[in-house]
Amino acid sequence: MTADQVKKALVSAVPGLQAELRPRPVGVRTRVEVPELWVDVSREGLVPVVAALKAAGPLHISIISGRDKGEEIELLYHFAVGYGTPGGEVMVTLRVGVPASDPTVPSICGILPGAETTEREKIEFLGIHFTGIPSTAHVFLPDGFTGHPWRKDDPETARHVKRMVEWEGKDA
Amino acid sequence: MPETQNVYEIPIGPIHPALKEPVRFTFQVEGERIRAVDVRAGFAHRGIEFMGMRRNLIQTLYLSERICGICSISHPIAITLAVERAAGIEVPPRAQYLRVIFSELERIHSHLLWAGVAAHELGFDTLLHLTWKVREQVLDILEELSGNRIDYAIPIYGGVRRDISPEQIPKVEAMIRYYRGLLEELVDAFLRDPSVAARTRDVGVLTPEEADLLCAVGPTARASGLSKDVRQDRPYLVYGELGVKAITPRDWGLEPRGDVYDKAVVRLLEVGQSLDLIETCLYEMPEGEITSFPKIPALLAHLKKAEGEGLGWHEAPRGEVIHYIRLEAGVEEPVAWKVKAPTYSNLMSWVPMFADQEIADIPIIAASIDPCICCMDRVHMVRDGSPATLLKEDLLRLSREKTERLTGHPSPVTRHGGGL
Question: Can you name the residues that pair with B184 across neighbouring β-strands?
Fold first, then answer.
C-alpha cells in the first residue's frame, strides 16, 4: 500500500479532498519514510471516505482521539490502511470538526465493527452523538456520570474534581 | 439469542477469583453453554489522560509509565515518539537501539507472566511456578539495567535516561543463553502437553475474519493467522532494519485456528524472537550519545515552545499501543493526549471468543487475550515459615538493597529523603 493509492481512494470517495502527506523518517543505517496522511473531512464525507479506505485495503482503526476547541469539537480518526502489509501500512488521520452545539457524527460501525469501543468512549468523554451506533452504553465512566470530562468547563467534571480534591487533599 | 426459560444470567466480576483485573462479564448461559456475553470495563479507570492534560510533559511521561505496570516501557515509548514527532526532536541512534532492547526485555517478561497465568487458569500450577521462577532472570536484568523491576523510567523525550555499560553486556548475554537453553523445555511443557492441548484446543476461537473486522491486535490477531505486527508493518525506531517478522502458528508448522493454544504458540515463539532481537541490538548498537537533551530544563524549555501534533506507536507485548499528542506554544501541558492500549482494541474480541463455550473455560478464555494485569510482587513475605507483613518503607529498603547487590554499587537515591 502506498500513500498515492490511499490518496486515490480518498479522492474517489469525495472528489477534491486534500490529503497532507507527512512522511516520517525512520531508521539509523537505512533511512526509510513511513507515510502519514492527514485529511480534513466533513462529517457528511466521513462514511464514504471510510468505506473507500476499507475497499482499498485491510483497514484497522487504531483510535479516535478528540478535543474541545470551544465552538467546535475536533475528532481525529486514526487508521492504518493496508493493515498487516510488511513495511506497507499507511497511517491515515481523518480530521472531522463538528459544532459543539450539534455534535452529531455518523457511526462507522457499519463498515468497521471494531470502531464501537472508541466511538462509545467519545460519547462519554466528549458528548458526541453517533447516529447508527449499535450501543451507547458507557464503557469507562460510571453509568450515572452525566458529564463529559474532555469538554471544557464541564460542570459535572468540575464538581467531581472538586470532591476528589477535598477528599484527597491534593489537586487533580 | 433465543429467549427461552432455560437461559440464566451469570455475572462474573468486577471482582472474581477467575479474573486478575477488574472487568465485568455478564454471561447468558444455557446449561453449561455460554450463549451471549456483555463486557463492561472502566472499574480501573483513573482519568490518566485527563490528569496528563493538566501536567507538564515530563510529568505526563511519568504518568504514562504508570498506566500499566507490565507495559511500563511501551507507553513511554509511544508518548516519546509522539512528542518527538510533534516537537521535531531527533533521537540519537544508540538511544533507538536501547529503546528496542528494553522493549524486547519487557516482551519476554510479559509473555512469561502470561504463560504462568494461563497455566494457573488451566489448573496447572506446577507450570505456573516454573514459568514465574524462570521469569525472575529477565526481571533481574531489567533491575540491573534500569534499577527497577517495573516502571523503568528509561525513555525520555530525545533519547533514554540510562546506557548499558560494557560490564553489563555479559550479564545480558548470560540471560539470553539461559532462556535459549530453557525455551525448548518451556515449549515442551506447554505445547506438547496433552492436558494443555485438551484444555486449549478449539477453545475461545477467534476467526481471522472476526479478528480483522473487530480490529484485534497483537498475539490475539496473530494467533488467528493474521500476519500483523506494528514492528513489521509500520517501522519505527530501528525495527525496520532488524527485519522483524510477525509470528503466527504457521511458524510452528500449524495451520492457525485462533484458539487459546495458538495464542500460547505465538507468545512462546515471540520470546525466542525477542532474544534474537536483543542479541542483534547489543552487537549492532553504535557508540554515541543516548539523548539529544541531557539537561531537563533545556528539554522543558524546548517543549514549551513546540507547536504541533504527532502520533507514536509501538508493538507492546499485547499488541498495538498508540498515543496522539497535540502541543501548543507557550503551554507546558499537552492540549490533547489520547492513549490507546492493546486491550482496548482486543476488548470486543471476547464476544465471539466466548460464544458457545463452556462455563469452566471462562477463566482461560478471559486470560487468553492477556488483559493488562498490574504487578503484585513484594507485598507479603514468608520467611522461615513465619509470615510477616511489610510496610512500604521496608519494601523500599529491601528493594534498594537488592539493586545494590545486583549492580555492585550504592543506590544513587538518598535513603532518608522523599518522605517515603
Answer: none
